[in-house]
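Input/output pair, single chain:
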Amino acid sequence: MTTLSARPGKQKIIVLAGPTGVGKTELSLGIAEKFKAEIISMDSMQIYKYMDIGTAKPTQAERSRICHHLVDYVEPDEDYHVSRFVQDARAAIIDINSRGHIPMLVGGTGLYMRGLLNGVFELPDVPAQVREQVRADLKEQGNAMLFQELSRCDPQAASRIHQNDSQRLARGIEIFRTTGIPWTEHLNSQPKKSAEYDVLKIGLHRDRGELYQRINTRVDMMIGQGLLAEVEHLLAQGFGPELGSMQSIGYRHMVNYIQKEWSWQEAVTLLARDTRHYAKRQLTWFGHDNAMHWFHPDDQQSIEELLGKEGF
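Output:
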């Protein structure tokens, strides 16, 4: 097989994307082994240390099979955003290429993929008083009220943001209050940069009922593996529930149980429901990408044939 460094032209990379629970991890390991690839995590939660169970992070055994980048990378209280991901992913791509291996991005965070491949959205300057007012409104009125505001001024943004994602919810409100223009409109008006990489995008899908059953089973597994204890340990280490990382799916559900906001049954039921809703939003995001080649995760042979045909 020709090494990556010997190929002329743009850097070739593979993207393996899909919703949570679809089966990206095991498939990515098999492909990486066959095509001499290294994996760059394209997951906004697996980036954090100590958050293993709730993020379905690759195990140490899985990481020993294939070199992974941007997993267990930052502390849970660090502000990690798409601009930093793009910088770190580019550095990882250069590092992987130096060994003659193929960079393969694996995950379900569409914003990270778009930032790396299409350029980072330049956020309009938000005056300090607007930012402070939005933070005050969040604290006084709660996420539900501001989510209603976002749904009115930018329904497309509201469709891809969870009500409890305080960071992105605040950003959407800040942008509209500052400019009078929805965040989505700003995104769509950004000039597309010329393609930096030669990218093959592979999307994974399953029948909706099958996917949702896998998600329900995964939630049960996470509970059995000790998700509650993991969250209790994070809180004991001083990582408070107000952090963006602790507001994510799974972690906020356990926090709400610990703080007696929800019963145990409510926490588990809502965790499964919110994970299914998140998977639906991911499918909608990736479904709009016309460059995506879609496969069932069990169809590894067809995926490998496509990779071979594309020169990997």
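The beta strands are 11-17, 37-41, 68-69, 102-107, 197-204, 292-295. Confidence is low (pLDDT under 50) at residues 1-7.
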